[in-house]
Each structure stands twice: as structure tokens, then as C-alpha cells.
Amino acid sequence: MASEIGESADVVAKIVRSRPATRDIAQRIGIGSAPLCVVCGRGSSGHAGVFLRYLVETRLRLPVSASAPSVITAFRTPLMLRHALFIVISQSGRSPDLIAATRSARAAGARTIAIVNATSSPVADEAEFVVPIEAGREHSVAATKTVIGSMAASAGLVAELAEDRALRSALDRLPERLHRALALDWSEIADDLAKASAVFVAARGLGLGSAREIALKLSEILRLPSIGVSAAELQHGPRAALSSRTPVVMMRLMDETAATVDALAEELREQKIALHLCGGPHGSLPWLSEDDPATDPITMLVPAYRMIEQTARAHGFDPDRPPRLTKITETF
Asked: Signal peptide span per the entry (predicted)?
């Protein structure tokens, strides 16, 4: 896991270099008549899909629905997706439910795109277009470089669909920022994790997918119940569950959500909740200077992954082989 985190910058550099191929796909798709976008993925790929949702809705102004593959596999109900944009995200490209959902969407008349690491896979075969992650083989059960690659490839696709020069420039800077992020030390969180009964990871908007991904890794690798939640939702029901034994890890982006995240951070500190905040003038975690809010959530994964990997080893856990898990999970 440690070595694969370190490969993330090179993975993203390859994705940036493949921009001409992504641009060609964007030009061939023709989303002008698309009524909506459907994003399909599970686990870490699903978290990349949450990130993609906010990008599509804010940059392309297309409403996005998260696909429920069981509608196809269990309920056997094909959806009316004519002219829709259907984007499936998968590392292995082998899960039967993602294969079936992609096949059904294409048969219904959707423009189907697969963002996959394994380009020679059934999911890629079912899609009309393929955007490769090209992360190489990942040996750790816990996905890291493929998640970062999935999010970068998603951002690259939206940059071309929207002809967004600012997002293209941010992606050009991303490999170097990922490399610099390897030096960020978030080990201060570890002391609170050792005595935690549960952890809340919070962010808003473009950061929500990363919050859910970090929460998954805390559960998967440190075996600690964790929930990734919108910072807006944390102001509602889940707030009642906060205590001295439920630290909050929160990420703040320099965008329209910043003020509300800052206000929540101040309230949590006043209530003596253990808060670890990344970003902004009141952040407690080491961070780089702010960059584009569409790429900073990707960069924030690097120090979080490193902290989780190192904490696992300190507690005698094997971060590469969590119990009762396999690298490829095939769901129906």
C-alpha cells in the first residue's frame, strides 16, 4: 500500500499525457442532447463517482443519478436511458453487476463510458468508449493509486466535455502536488484514533467523495467504524452521535462551501469535539497552499492514506491484507 500511494503522481501524469485521446472521446460523445448523467460504481469506485457527480453538475449542468445496479441484476428492470450519459467506474472491470448495468444502459440508447484500470475487461467491452486509468497492477487489497487515478481521469473527462481550461491547468499541476503531498504528516490524528469508538470524516461538495473514501479506508484497514458524511449533514442528525470518543476529520476546499465548513469547525471546537481540519486559515493538519477545488480533494487522499497505512503498522495490522477481504469483489 505504501509503495502504491507513492506511485499515484506517476499514474496521474500518464492520465494528463493521454488528454488528446480523452478529448477525442468528448468530441464524439455529443452531450448536447443528454437529459442526464448516470454514474455507476461500487466501493472506492463509487466514491470517485460521488466526486464525478459534483464535477458534472457544476461544470456541465447535467443532473446526475447514482446507478443502482441491482435494478438490473435483481429486479430485472431496464431503465429508460435514451440519450443519457452513462459513466461506469471500475478498477477490475469484472463485477457482474457493473457489466450488466453497462450492457443495459447501452442497449437502452445511452452513451456509455467506462473509466477502468483493466481496459481488457468485460465492463470495458460493454461500453462504447473507454477512458483508461493505466495505474498498473495494484497488489494491496486496499485501492489507493487506482482511486486517485479514477478521480483524475474523471476530472480529465469533464475538463474536455466542458472545454474547461482552468480544470485542465489544475490537472497539469496535480502530479507535482501529489508528489509534494507525500511529505505531509497527518500522524496527529492517530492518537485520537487509538481511543475512538467511531470516526466521522466530513467535507462538502467536491470533497465528499474523498471523505467517504477516507472513512472506508479507516474501516477497512484500521477496523474502526467510520462514516463519511457531508459537513452539511453533520449539522443535522449525525451530530447527536458526536462525543469525546468520536473524532472528526474534516476537509475544507477554497470554494463556495468554505464558509459553512469554517463555521462548523468553529462550533465543533467550542463543543470540545476532537477535530482535525485540512485546509483554510484555521486548519490543523499540514497542507499545501490551496489550488483548484476540483483537484485538491484528490491531493488530500495522499496524506490520509499514508496516515492510515502507518497507523495500521503501528498497531500490528497488515494494511495490505485486511481480514475477510479480497482484491476483486464480484457483486450481483
From this structure: none
